[in-house]
UniProtKB/TrEMBL annotation:
Transmembrane segments: none annotated. CDD domains: Creatinase. One of its GO terms (molecular function) is creatinase activity. It comes from marine metagenome. InterPro entries: Creatin/AminoP/Spt16_N, Creatinase/aminopeptidase-like, Creatinase_C, Creatinase_N, Pept_M24, Peptidase_M24B. Residues 131-348 form the Peptidase M24 domain. PANTHER family: AMINOPEPTIDASE (PTHR46112), XAA-PRO AMINOPEPTIDASE P-RELATED (PTHR46112:SF2). This is Creatinase. Residues 1-123 form the Creatinase N-terminal domain. Pfam families: Creatinase_N (PF01321), Peptidase_M24 (PF00557).
Length: 369
């Protein structure tokens, strides 16, 4: 705020409101916000939530009602005097919301702070790293719960439910004052593994199926993940070959994550390994991304992703995944999606891997007892 000469900032995104106040809002079609000035921090919440936002907010809370149209903007006007410079999130405000805000504060200069705030979030505090470490531990427990129930004839959704229940129970035990929300599991089998974000179905597992395990414990709005390739009872030689190459890329990728490494250069180096095995055309997305206050519907820190077009330099206390994925299209030998995923903290001289769940053919061909 000082560098840009801002009188106040109005945060409106789920991730920034949570990051700066510890209040994780549920919009349900209503606007929320957090106004930060040099002296105070105040969340703005809808009356439907009653006292919960005030109990969670680090700072003050102002409640608006639905009794008059645009009461949210009247709340903003109470907290932001017209005529100064106001920081806003241009990557979150819709065109309509921007027009309404400008009409409510006609003499105020709106300044986009979204990119700079993202960069601030990219480097984690020691406290954030400690929370993410706990999330990684709980994700490993979710993975173990998945393996407990994998077997021929078991439907995907039953595996996912068992994993999610195990993670929620452990979050409740480890963080007794936390809100329990958003933890989930994607568990895919067979052709359903071809997309990393494919939803869970009732498809029943078959012998020889490729499986994709994806566990996501959510603690205080912070995202962690465990993702692994597995097989039901057996894996063909064709499947093993693709799987082993992907594990090779995973190993090399983890080695490359260290301070001073450039995100785009890491991606280019790993592309060469896939190319050597004539598999580069089956790569589907970047090799990893940042962790922190994010979920599948908020908070992506796009400046810290392992893609060719990202020139961010890694530095200590950044937290990134290494998650190479190959997708062999349906109808080809060894069809399916292959992905391994670890969470790594960049340290002063390398990295620390927070993920403990094993990977590869020696560990994750799940056979019935």
């Amino acid at each position: 705020m000082g560098r840009q000469g801002l009188d106040a900032v109005l945060f409106t995104s789920i991730h920034n409101v949570n990051y700066y106040s510890d209040f994780l809002y549920c919009s349900f079609g209503r606007p929320y916000g957090l106004v930060v000035t040099g002296e105070r921090s105040t969340s703005i919440s809808a009356n439907i939530d009653a006292g919960q936002p005030g109990r969670r907010t680090f700072g003050e809370n102002l409640v608006y009602t639905d009794w008059r149209r645009d009461n949210y903007l009247r709340a903003v006007q109470q907290l932001v005097p017209d005529g100064g410079r106001l920081g806003v999130e241009n990557d979150h405000l819709s065109f309509q919301s921007s027009l309404k805000l400008e009409a409510a504060l006609p003499d105020t200069e709106m300044v986009d702070v979204s990119v700079e705030c993202m960069r601030l979030r990219m480097v984690k505090s020691d406290e954030e790293v400690a929370l993410i470490r706990e999330g990684a531990r709980i994700a490993d427990l979710g993975g173990a719960a998945c393996v407990e129930v994998i077997g021929e004839g078991v439907p995907e959704h039953q595996v996912a439910l068992h994993s999610t229940q195990a993670m929620v129970n452990e979050i409740a035990r480890s963080f007794p004052h936390a809100e329990l929300m958003d933890t989930w599991t994607w568990f895919q089998s067979g052709v359903n593994t071809d997309g990393a974000h494919n939803p869970v179905t009732s498809r029943r597992l078959e012998r020889g199926d490729i499986l994709s395990l994806n566990c996501f414990p959510m603690i205080a709005g912070y995202y962690t993940a465990l993702e692994r390739t597995l097989f039901c009872e057996e894996a063909s030689e064709a499947h093993r070959r693709i799987w082993e190459v992907n594990c090779l890329v995973h190993d090399e990728g983890k080695r490359l994550l260290r301070p001073g490494a450039v995100c785009g250069e890491v991606a280019t180096a790993l592309n060469e390994i896939y190319a050597e095995h004539d598999l580069l055309r089956y790569r589907t997305f970047g090799y990893g991304h940042s962790f922190g206050v994010l979920c599948h519907y908020y908070g992506r820190e796009a400046g810290l992703e392992l893609r060719e077009d990202i020139d961010t330099v890694l530095e200590p206390n950044m937290v990134v995944s290494m998650e190479p994925m190959l997708m062999i299209p349906e109808g080809l030998p060894a069809a399916g999606g292959y992905r391994e995923h670890d969470i790594l903290v960049i340290t002063a001289d390398g990295n620390e891997n927070l993920t403990g769940f094993p990977y590869g053919p020696d560990h994750n061909i799940v056979r019935s007892a």
